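The following record pairs a protein chain with its ligand, pyridoxal-5'-phosphate.
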Amino acid sequence: MGSISNRQLFLNHVAQTSDAPIGIEMVKAQGVYLYDVDGKAYIDAISGFSVANIGHGNPAVIKAVQAQSEAYMHLIVYGEFIQQPQVAYAQLLTQHLPSSLNCVYFTNSGAEATEGAMKLAKRATNRSKIISFNKSYHGSTQGALSVMGDEYWRNAYRPLLPGIDHFDYGTEEAITAIDATTACVIMETVQAEAGVVAPSKEWIQAIRRKCTEQGVLLILDEIQSGFGRTGTLWAFEQFGIIPDILLLGKALGGGMPLGAFIADKQLMGQLTHDPVLGHITTFGGHPVSCAAGKAAMEVLLQEKMIGSVQEKQAYLLQQIQHPKIKAVRSIGLWMAVEFDSFDTCYTIIKKCIAGGMITDWFLFAPHCMRIAPPLAISMEELNTMCNIILDSLMETD
Ligand code: PLP
């Protein structure tokens, strides 16, 4: 009897969430490249969905992981012992945030950060109505799914949380709906899975103003847009607003699982009473994840990776042009390349992967191809990436 391939074992025993996983077996990741079992190299043009902003296998991150795992790994549930990696990372993060975002609750994931922030908003305001947006993604747990903005993805899991109203970005209705019964508005500063959709500055500022007027907490999800992806450390800097609660994840952990919701200490203090232990997590803020995340953020800042984002964005916009492309939306090193249909997009994606570049489509914009390489990508690597895209386009002419 022949041995069963890893691919077959993967399909048989690792829970599948679609009939069409990319299904390549990777054995190594270094810089902007992923390597499969046959030694083929692929440019990671999506950074594991905006996780590997500084690239893969950074020596400083590896060193931090090794040192911390030798010192200690899990000790106790969140919040009891003083764990230096959490303290140091919370300090670094808050040094680079507005003074009102001075207190960090570390979680396991982005979805858990969403859950914690929504709980905090309900607890602090004693209200339950939540406003969220169509084509928004905040995670896949049931609370996060309730604020997600697409009925196709939500419907099978009803009943979900009650009292949630969804609006389109940019609408006056959304602003009008914010009232004295609203606990929070939760939104992505730039909508990721809608296919990189940025709001107008005026509109998002009007949302901010109305929240302040009505005592409503504004939660900004920067799980995908944070850590330099948009060309500034935080996307909200470009819109002249500050959230009451900020959600972080993905690049936050430097390749390890980590999420966070961040607020003012006084607001966060609501989680300490009525009931005590307002949010409980066993592994949230894992010391190895915090050590890795802090090392990655230091690399991002010290190597001034955000400084070159604009130039790289401009280069991509200039290079990625073809009659098949209907539009390109971008902010920073984050791009949605729009085609006439999912079929065209999927064909190009498959060709890019065969040509040595990993890319994907967006959840709520399946006719758009995702381009979000590590910010550390060199101009030469960027050029290789563009050639793979252009060759793929040409092959389908
Ligand atoms: N929010 C946004 C904008 C995201 O892109 C994601 C993940 O894709 C999440 C929240 C959920 O994060 P996680 O998958 O870590 O739960």
